[in-house]
Task: inverse folding
């Protein structure tokens, strides 16, 4: 099932919290889906959708933090916002270090939460774009990646040919193929995309 890009997934075992948050967020024109547990959210199989997940930090069964960890393991583009009780602030601060967009103590202020959700949606779109870029890069052949790295260093076709001991025409063919493979139309766009991919790879290595 393909979700609308503005979907907010609410995960909380308190039915009254789900109702009040749904009403609040729908008044800001967000599409909302409710889940009474982390397990119910997992069963919905929306890992690879873009959107925002608002998680209760403490729930029976899987906790909000455990669900967040699963999202990260699945490389989900979904952005996470936490709802916390008064005693959970240190945990929530730690969650921010793990990639959460924000956290709110219950009861959350509607306008501030809506603003955070908008930011989370932007983060989710950026996450999805990074994943798409990485997937296109990983589909390149080893030779195409090699040539891409040399292009990024400023090498011209003749210099690349000399460096790799291949014909200039072969470089031109590989270059055209990698431009097509990376889904870009210009050298500037290629360099911007490659820089973003290199940054993503560096972060994952870190």
Result:
């Amino acid at each position: 099932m393909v979700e609308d890009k503005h979907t907010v997934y609410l995960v909380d075992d308190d039915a009254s919290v789900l109702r009040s948050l749904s009403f609040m967020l729908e008044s800001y024109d967000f599409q909302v889906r409710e889940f009474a547990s982390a397990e119910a959210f997992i069963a919905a199989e929306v890992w690879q959708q873009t959107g925002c997940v608002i998680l209760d930090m403490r729930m029976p069964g899987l906790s909000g933090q455990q669900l967040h960890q699963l999202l990260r393991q699945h490389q989900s583009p979904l952005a996470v916002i936490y709802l916390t009780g008064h005693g959970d602030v240190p945990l929530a601060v730690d969650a921010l270090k793990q990639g959460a967009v924000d956290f709110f103590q219950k009861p959350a202020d509607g306008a501030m939460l809506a603003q955070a959700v908008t930011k989370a949606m932007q983060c989710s779109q950026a996450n999805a774009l990074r994943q798409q870029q990485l997937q296109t890069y990983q589909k390149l052949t080893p030779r195409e990646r090699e040539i891409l790295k040399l292009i990024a260093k400023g090498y011209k076709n003749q210099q690349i040919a000399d460096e790799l001991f291949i014909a200039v025409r072969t470089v031109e063919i590989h270059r055209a193929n990698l431009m097509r493979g990376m889904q870009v139309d210009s050298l500037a766009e290629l360099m911007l995309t490659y820089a973003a991919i290199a940054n993503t790879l560096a972060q994952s290595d870190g």
Notes: The chain has two domains: 7-129, 140-203. The chain has a mean pLDDT of 88. The chain has nine helices and five strands.
